[in-house]
Design brief:
This protein is of the alpha+beta class. 18% of the residues lie in helices and 44% in strands. It is globular, with a radius of gyration of 19 Å.
Amino acid sequence: MIKSIRIVLLKVLIFSLAFSKNDSYSNFKKYMDQNMGSIFNISYHQSQYNERLVSEGVICFKSYKKYIFDNNMTRIIYNNKYIKTINKQNKQIIYDEIIEGEVSLFDLLFSNKRLDVSLGASLNPDISIINFKLKSLDIRGVLKTDNLSGEPKQLSLFNVDSSLLSVVEINRVESKVDFNLSAIDTTSYELIDLRE
């Protein structure tokens, strides 16, 4: 009897997923809406043509228009349509504008732009797996979220020939904490302005 109830519940779950492929994504967007003001502790992995970069840091998610990535080498401040990069090692500050139509890995998590998740979603016992495609860049992606809360766990991007792979793993989220990043003395930093 219990086994047949489990089978029925599993069939209902699979059937509901087949007809509601965007529910997992909506759950993720709801989580992000409710967690503005949180700090996301992340690991960032990128490999391109057999070169690998691994970095850890935090993202202060103030709002969809302003978020800050910080680690021991770089601080990147996304503020509306502008980007300010503070290179701590080379002592440079670079001002730039976000180019219309371009999407960064962090934009996919921390902006209010919606993804085309027409490639569908699937569930395993704890994680929703949301597949999507960035048509303008010919890049595919996978967003993994917690089934219940919608909390993002991992975002991966890769191109068709797998020569490029980028992964952001969300290790921990600290809810509604104060944004007190350490001050950086930039008085001797070189200024580079790429804005038009």
